[in-house]
């Protein structure tokens, strides 16, 4: 039977009922986040700069995310210009290629640390 506009709604969750999986996830998150040992570990990682995404989230929660109106652009640029025009107006070369990544030498005696952007499993839970 195909959907017909105006038909009586049957089944599904009642309005305001939480998804069971979401509730279970929140419980696990609460257990972890309320754990003093985890909080000490997190604080150390933040201080060492090993949790950049979380640090950005915390700054946003504390001070709010900056709001930029659609009609605003960097000083000295036309807000209606596209990115290439803005870069040219600011004296930047829009065709400039980013610098190649810096590769640190490795002596082979121990495993190198994974990059900060590596998935959680790949870096031993440091992010």
Question: In summary, what is this structure?
Answer:
This protein starts with 19 loop residues before the first helix and ends in a 38-residue tail after the last helix. It has 127 residues and is an all-alpha fold.
Please characterize this protein's 3D structure.
- By secondary structure, this protein is mainly alpha-helical.
- Helix content is 36%, strand content 0%.
- The mean pLDDT is 75.
Spans of at least 5 consecutive residues whose pLDDT stays below 50 are none
Main sheet, how many strands, which sense, barrel? none
**What structural class is derived from the secondary structure elements?**
mainly alpha
Global geometry: extended
Count the DSSP helices.
Answer: 4
* Strand proportion: under 5%
Considering DSSP H and I runs of 4 or more, what fraction of the residues is helical? 25-40%
